[in-house]
Amino acid sequence: MKQYQHPNADQITLTGLLHALSDPVRLNYVQCLAAKIGECPCGAIPTPVAKSTMSHHLRVLREAGIVRIRTEGTQSLTSLRLAEVEAKFPGVLQAVLKAAKEDETLQDNGRVASESDLA
Amino acid sequence: MKQYQHPNADQITLTGLLHALSDPVRLNYVQCLAAKIGECPCGAIPTPVAKSTMSHHLRVLREAGIVRIRTEGTQSLTSLRLAEVEAKFPGVLQAVLKAAKEDETLQDNGRVASESDLA
DNA sequence: CGCATTGTTCGACATCCATAGAACAATAAA
DNA sequence: TTTATTGTTCTATGGATGTCGAACAATGCG
């Protein structure tokens, strides 16, 4: 269907990483993605924005090197590039994910992902 | 001279923190600030932008809760709120600082690299 | 084949943001 | 007091960004 381009480890920049994570919608998506193991269909994670907007956000995350996207059938599967990002910037993504998990301001911000929303 | 308002720990948000750190000029400034201990005059850290621009960046850093600014005479002294930020989001700022220290794209003291190098 | 599902792309739009110069304020130094 | 230093604020500007709807593409299902 569609071929996605992913930056390799060398092309991942710290500011790019931080910028990609600085959006509430994106950070929440990444957080939900980290909670699951392995790949995850985009649609399986509830988001408060239109699908075209989410497509844009996923593009940002992908180009920042945070997620890997591949298509299978009609749906695209996203997975966190945790190991690669950690190898490049040790502790950063992990600390952000941990902080996000315990942050209340992300829950209502964008109204994302109550436990009941997760299928 | 001027009174600065600083957010308390409760008002520091993760996305605000990440956004403030996602700018190369700001991240470099914070990194230099971390290298020094205690307060530091703004002018003591070389920056590649005009002073009005730097004033804007320092405002962003201050409002994000990352730096504390106070004036003494004609100059304003900035200090990193490392302990407070770490108390709120453990590991995040520290990991970012460590990553920034070892990142080549940030090295030459603020010349905004990386954007043009990505093409 | 026709239709539903899933996501991308395009155009549009409003807003934010980094940048800089000019004018201003406050203090220090001569 | 006059000048220099330091930084803020105002205004402008060009570019990036988040958002959406509509149209499109690809696959799966009946």
UniProtKB/TrEMBL annotation, chains A, B:
<dbReference type="InterPro" id="IPR051081">
    <property type="entry name" value="HTH_MetalResp_TranReg"/>
</dbReference>
<protein>
    <submittedName>
        <fullName>Transcriptional regulator</fullName>
    </submittedName>
</protein>
<keyword id="KW-0804">Transcription</keyword>
<feature type="domain" description="HTH arsR-type">
    <location>
        <begin position="6"/>
        <end position="100"/>
    </location>
</feature>
<dbReference type="InterPro" id="IPR036390">
    <property type="entry name" value="WH_DNA-bd_sf"/>
</dbReference>
<keyword id="KW-0805">Transcription regulation</keyword>
<keyword id="KW-0238">DNA-binding</keyword>
<dbReference type="InterPro" id="IPR011991">
    <property type="entry name" value="ArsR-like_HTH"/>
</dbReference>
<dbReference type="GO" id="GO:0003677">
    <property type="term" value="F:DNA binding"/>
</dbReference>
<dbReference type="GO" id="GO:0003700">
    <property type="term" value="F:DNA-binding transcription factor activity"/>
</dbReference>
<dbReference type="InterPro" id="IPR036388">
    <property type="entry name" value="WH-like_DNA-bd_sf"/>
</dbReference>
<dbReference type="Pfam" id="PF12840">
    <property type="entry name" value="HTH_20"/>
</dbReference>
<dbReference type="InterPro" id="IPR001845">
    <property type="entry name" value="HTH_ArsR_DNA-bd_dom"/>
</dbReference>
